[in-house]
Amino acid sequence: MKKSRNKRPVKPLNKSSRKAGMAPGTLLYTGNNNNAEVKISLFSYKGEFFEETLIENSDNLQGLLNSPHISWLTVDGIHKVELIEKIGKNFSIHPLILEDITHNIQRPKFEDYDNNLYFVMRIFNYDETSMQLSNEQISFVLGSNYILTFCETPCSVFDNVKDRLRKGAQKIRNSNSDYLAYALIDAVVDSYFIILEKIGTDIEELEDGIVVNPTKEDIQNLHRLRRELILMRKSIWPLREILNNLLHEVNGIFSKETMVYLRDVYDHSIQIIDTIESYRDMVIGMLDVYLSSLSNKMNQVMKVLTIISTIFIPLTFLAGVYGMNFVHFPEIQMTWMYPWGFWGFSLLLIGFMLFLFKRKNWL
């Protein structure tokens, strides 16, 4: 009969294996967020003109390609593949792009098509209560006068950009879609700093606890932080390649003025990657500190036990001698022998040994 054991909660597996054997360009949502409501918002602007619309019928998107305004279409929820396919037809998006949008485990990447640019990034959410890090995919399709963003869940990371549009920020209102794309990329990159700040706080608190009093929970938290940093490194490391490709894209969608801002984001990405590497080194070093602290703690315990054992060795010898079954023990007949002879000598011996240990700095 097998022994029962505690099992970790099982996370829903990604359904990417279901795509095996399908033709290229086949749309299949591979995530687990199948029941959420899809929300489509449209932001149109140019100079003083601004309009924010909640789209309820995707058939109304025709004509945005030839619109004199800059259009930003946000799609929160990608599990309805027929809706994604309809949006793709309205904007003449390549079927391979649509396939990657619904296949939500894409590695961050950049692809340059004839009439638009497609790039993928990952955004992170950090639950401070459970101290768990989660991530999701966000896809961008950039054209000369429009940008489309596809998120699995509502992207709060773009709230600041939306507020800037609503409040009439002159720079973003008077610029083309390339500057809006920069603003969205910059918002995602800035969110990485917030996540890393929270992880850094956890690392500092954990480091203080490990040095003072290491516990079993500390080693679990160390492994959790290590996994989270590996996940962030895997998701952010290709960001340099994406930004570098955007800086050298040949379609001319990004202007020279916007390129300056993209180079600044590129520098931020390098800083983020360096921070992740530093945190990884700190976590690995903390693992060594944990093992050293645990070893020192064990040494202290063994030291106390050794001292106690050493003190009781001669006492055990005395008790063994006077516990033997011999008749002729002359001192046993003395009245004062037990309180003064045995116990007095034993206490004197204990005091002498403690004095000796103290003298040698063993205590």
Report the major sheet: 7 strands, mixed
Number of DSSP-assigned strands: 7
Q: Looking across the biggest beta sheet, what order are the strands in?
A: 2-1-3-7-6-5-4
CATH architecture of the largest domain: 2-Layer Sandwich
CATH level 4 superfamily of the largest domain: CorA soluble domain-like
Report the CATH topology name of the largest domain.
Beta Polymerase, domain 2
Distance between the termini: 51 Å
Q: Given the C-alpha coordinates, what overall shape results?
A: rod-shaped
Series of secondary-structure elements, N-terminal to C-terminal: EEEHHEEEEHHHHHHH
Uncertain runs are 1-13
> How many structural domains are formed by the residues?
2
Distinct helical segment count: 9
Radius of gyration: 34 Å
Proportion of residues in helical segments:
40-55%
